[in-house]
Design a protein that fits this description.
205 residues; TIM Barrel; 2 domains; 8 helices; 48% helix; elongated
Length: 205
């Protein structure tokens, strides 16, 4: 079926406003979405990477509405491995005002076990400048979780005002103690009770 569009007709509803060029930044996507609203375009076409950014912001807003006081936000791992540090910075700088306007705490999860030391340091620089509350070692789902070395590296390169949460593979009191000694001030553990009971049983006061 063909549709005849007259010269004065509105063609906007037929258009998918598109930006797929390499090197596209979050600000470009925001501009594109704004233009689509202004002109009434049918849709926007953007790389999947940016759909995740918008979805992340929507999840943050919903979590705060539902009563969350602390938000764990996972890094854009694909952007880091593609050396797109501008996108990484744009994402957190877009998220921070939303979280802080509500007086909430934000923890950024960097998956330290699958990053190089140089990537960890770069994350410390970017997220430190953004003013997050915590940097967290891992989600617990990567092949490698928290390590004493990663916590020490993070502590060395983060401002003192930013705390560190170690998470992933913490199952013993001794490992928990080592992570705290390295600079962690919060631990994410599924073996919490076993760790506390181990401390009590061994008299490790």
């Amino acid at each position: 079926m063909s549709i005849n569009i007259t010269k004065g007709a509105d063609i906007s509803p037929f258009i998918d406003h598109t930006a797929l060029k390499p090197g596209l930044l979050l600000k470009d996507v925001e501009k594109l979405c704004g233009e689509a609203k202004t002109y009434g375009f049918a849709a926007v076409c953007i790389p999947p990477l940016f759909v995740k950014v918008e979805a992340k912001i929507a999840e943050i807003l919903l979590a705060m509405v539902d009563g969350a006081d602390e938000l764990d936000v996972v890094i854009n791992f694909t952007a880091i491995k593609n050396n797109d540090w501008q996108l990484v910075a744009n994402e957190i700088n877009h998220i921070m005002p939303i979280v802080k306007s509500k007086g909430k705490i934000i923890k950024t999860i960097i998956e330290s076990g699958v990053l190089t030391d140089e990537e960890i340091i770069r994350c410390c620089d970017i997220y430190g400048a953004a003013g997050i509350d915590f940097m967290k070692t891992s989600t617990g789902y990567a092949d490698k979780g928290a390590s004493v070395e990663a916590v020490k590296l993070m502590r060395k390169h983060l401002p003192e005002s930013i705390s560190i949460k170690a998470s992933g593979g913490i199952r013993t009191f001794e490992f928990a103690r080592e992570l705290i000694a390295a600079g962690a001030t919060r631990l994410g553990c599924s073996s919490s009770i076993a760790i506390v009971q181990e401390k009590t049983a061994e008299g490790n006061y």
